[in-house]
Amino acid sequence: MQFSSALAGARAGQQAGPHDRRREQLNRLYEAANELADDRLRRLLLQLEKKRPRIYREQRQSAIGQLERESPAVLKGSGSVRTVDLLSYKYALVHYSADGKPLPDWLARFPR
Length: 112
Known about the structure:
Number of domains: 1
Structural class: mainly alpha
Largest sheet: none
Radius of gyration: 18 Å
Helix content: over 70%
Distance between the termini: 44 Å
Shape: globular
Number of strands: 0
């Protein structure tokens, strides 16, 4: 019995592996995104808007909706544009990484 539970644990670890790697990659991308200058962040979002306008709008609305629910005061502050831009970009990263495929180069063209 002891061995079968260890085997089950090992299998669970193997199954969680790709998910954990994607989560780690997203965390690294989030950290890198947090360091982006405003103009670089806007250029990346502009590329998303040009290449995938529907996805851009969906991610932007998701970001605004989350901020309205969780931190409405942030939307009235001086850093609201950066906050919405950054959260929109992070939503786009989640969207594109959800299928397990590599992120498009044009979306993640910054040091990781």
